[in-house]
């Protein structure tokens, strides 16, 4: 026990000595702490910079060795006073953008914060037009700065949301920059899974900077932004695909893997269709949470509105609700949704209908599913024959614009049919299929007519060439005969 | 059957005195020599003109000369009208063959010096008809109102606009405004089916009348050839029947082209779309178009394009005036410079057309 006290005494003495060494000769602190007693001086004593031996004069200029205030704060001695506007961040950047200097302080921090900030959304000019919207101190404070890992830091994960919402939840402030930007991100965040956990003191769930970045924050419309539609799934997957990081939350980590091969993922990530849904389209962004069983169809229905409406008024709605089955997900799955093909309909092993509708247990549903599949196949076959004929006619150089136009109607009906299947009404389904079959039959007729015409032209040409050749030969013989006669007469 | 035909002939002859006409034609003789083949190109051009008139009238029955309906009406002709595809393809192919045979005819007349006194007016009327033919080609090209025609007309009319003083008013007049629009289509349609055919028919009538009055031109060396050695053949029936034989062959070629290479319609013109790559005029304008591409933007103080257009204008004028400056040929003397000039022009046109085609 006595050894312990001795050890603690040694540590305390060492710290006092270190502080003494650090501040030895720094008249700024001496006066501002003991005589003026101001807050910045007090805060600075606990600042990470103070612990690294950085003095007030390193940012404010002047001569800290002079006891006389006039001499210590003489502009001729380099005194700058309190920096304003961009001068604040430039003062920070003097060290933080200088790799050599940062290395001397034993720092492993990146040195591109200031350049990132300048090109970020916060780097645009403020309403005064004289400075950037945000400076380093806006988030990190001016004095009393501590490491981001320190729970008292305003940029510590548990404090980040509060720091960001200082401005982003302030309607009158945000209106001056972007009146269309919502100010409820903080409120929504609190309702999200991330926010709830964060509120309970868990620093691991995502905070603002986890998705938006810190110094290089860009608007979501900027293709370089981490929350730009195409980049968003990757941003979410940084945590959600990290099995070790997510271990304690006991949720799957294969969502990104599934999503990237899904119809949505392929459209967004491979075809760069920014209209395709990303993670936030279904889960929400600031209020991110998995849609519940009862709300899946509403979430999917924001894009697939007609399908959702048809489903809601179909007999399946009640059946699904009774069995507590998630509506769309039951047949289409969630993250790994594949492109809906005709094979999903029917009673074959690949069809989703047969998962519930069995020939013996549910003969009515089974019969409807079977009939629908027959109709689908019939339309597909008609369409395929018509397409082949139209292509053949076109390849033969025939004019088949109208047939091609009607072929589009057939394909349109095919798409409508895939929507109409969600009504699970055989009669309505047949109407759409018949419309498509009529269009395909018309196209078939037109194309076949064009092909027949093609052969007719060739046969016609053959006959006319034969007639013309015979005429030409006859004419030639006649000319020769006349000329022979003329020669004989001469 | 034979007596019936004879009776019919006698009936017509009694009223129109065809016998006199036949006697008149039988008196006409066509010189026979190693270049006689070129005589047939005048006749075949006439034949192609007749095809153009017939097919043109047939197309007029269905064609609608407006921005909204032009393309669709041709589409209708090609797909719905009985033999519409044949008529349209024949009209398009014949137009091209017509220009080709007329050019061959013109160059053969040039190299044979057939333009020399007393046939200056025949040459002049022929040259004017050739210019009109190019006008037919230019005005007819836009009528389907497809993408290619739209932009080619845009470029073509722009070139006209560079001519000093009169260029801009002509451009405005042709386009019916600042840009190629439905108004341009209406104007060019009017020119194609009314103005140009009217003038052309008058010139053709005069041309045929001159040929009839003066007969076929004899080659220069005939002047030194004894009368007995000058081979000839009667225009009727020998030459006319041979002409008809050639026409039959040309008609067959046209039928083959129409069946195997039906004239494409392309896509409908969209004035707001950007011009497709590689816009080129029809082959008969290609050598001029390609030349304009090679002329620098500025030659001394003159704009390159203006210089090009003016040079072609001047060259065309001099070419047309050859009977008046080639006095040597008119005196019956051999002028070898005419051969050099002619060969240079033929080579130039061929070379630049090929380069333009490949470019």
Characteristic key phrases:
heterodimer, A: 490 residues, mainly alpha, Butyryl-CoA Dehydrogenase, subunit A, domain 3, 27 helices, B: 359 residues, Cytochrome Bc1 Complex, Chain C, two-stranded antiparallel ribbon, two-stranded antiparallel sheet, 15 helices, 3% strand
Overall description:
The complex is a heterodimer of chains A (490) and B (359). Chain A has 490 residues and is mostly helical. Among the domains of chain A are: 61 residues, no CATH class; 89 residues, no CATH class; 148 residues, Butyryl-CoA Dehydrogenase, subunit A, domain 3, CATH 1.20.140. Chain A has 27 helices and no strands. In chain A, helix 25 packs antiparallel against helix 26. Chain A is elongated and about 140 Å long. Chain A starts with a helix and ends with a helix. Chain B has a domain of 244 residues: Cytochrome Bc1 Complex, Chain C (Up-down Bundle), CATH 1.20.810.10. Helix content of chain B is 70%, strand content 3%. Chain B has 15 helices and 4 strands. In chain B, the strands form 2 sheets. In chain B, strands 1-2 form a two-stranded antiparallel ribbon. Chain B has a two-stranded antiparallel sheet with strand order 3-4. Chain B starts with a helix and ends with a helix. The mean pLDDT of chain B is 92. At the A-B interface, helix 27 of A face helix 4 and helix 10 of B.
What does the secondary structure layout of this molecule look like, with pairings?
The complex is a heterodimer of chains A (about 500) and B (about 350).
Chain A: H1 2-23, H2 27-36, H3 39-44, H4 48-51, H5 56-60, H6 69-72, H7 86-96, H8 99-104, H9 113-119, H10 136-140, H11 157-168, H12 171-175, H13 185-191, H14 193-199, H15 208-212, H16 232-240, H17 243-246, H18 255-261, H19 263-270, H20 279-283, H21 296-301, H22 305-312, H23 315-322, H24 327-332, H25 363-395, H26 401-420, H27 426-489
Helix pairs in contact in A: 13-14, 18-19, 25-26, 25-27, 26-27
Chain B: H1 2-16, H2 18-27, E1 29-31, H3 40-60, H4 70-79, H5 84-111, H6 120-142, H7 147-161, H8 167-175, H9 182-214, E2 232-234, H10 235-260, H11 283-294, E3 298-299, E4 302-303, H12 304-320, H13 322-325, H14 327-330, H15 336-358
Antiparallel strand pairs in B: 1-2, 3-4
Helix pairs in contact in B: 3-5, 3-10, 4-5, 5-6, 5-10, 6-9, 7-8, 11-12, 11-15
